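Repro:
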Amino acid sequence: MNRSGLFSSGVLGILLSTTAMAAAMDIQSKKSLPENPSFDIQKASIKKDGQHLVFGMELVKNAGAKIPEAIGKLKGASVYSYVWPTGFDPSLVGFSPKTGILAFAATSHPDFDDTPLYDEDGDGDASNDGRKWHSHWVVLSKTKECGASGLKVRDIKKGEVFDLPKTWPNLPILIDSPGWHPKFTKTSIEVRVPFDKSAKLSGISFDGVTSALRVNVNAHVPLLCVSAVFDVASGDLSLPGRIK
């Protein structure tokens, strides 16, 4: 499948809509990636459990075992990710409304740490944990500057003012570092995320994606692009899943 067509303007419109979606709960993936089983999605799900959402993904094998190769610097650094694009408005988690596609992600990137409030490896240093899998909310937006994928984590350009979550990691992009820890088995990843009682969590659309991102080698806008798409649970990013 040609991945470059997945992020066309038509698909972006679907991503931003929660209407006309199939009433599926989980998404069963049909594509096979024998060369990349760590990111070969078998099923993607988001389940509501009280006022929690449980983000889940089943992989062929070795879930979470593959992380990017370190290059020793931020510029040009790679990020691997398990991602759930959703139909939620970004205001759900504290960003300004209608700023893009709200996605939940579990990421690993050994060259930098973007969770300054948390010490994931427990060594007393909260600034050296980027290689450890951790969670983010990100707001994605479309741009030609990111090549075939056409997507980036939305930048905060000079002079722009946005609402930001309390756990925003002080980076010039719409990203949140809430500290919810992924749990892995050999064939799955799961992250449990709490919400307050006022949040409407049911009936929202979603998809599942495994991908790589890369920090701009010049460290300017766009700062963080989707550089490769490994697998898409639906096959076409139509967000057929429904939270029930």
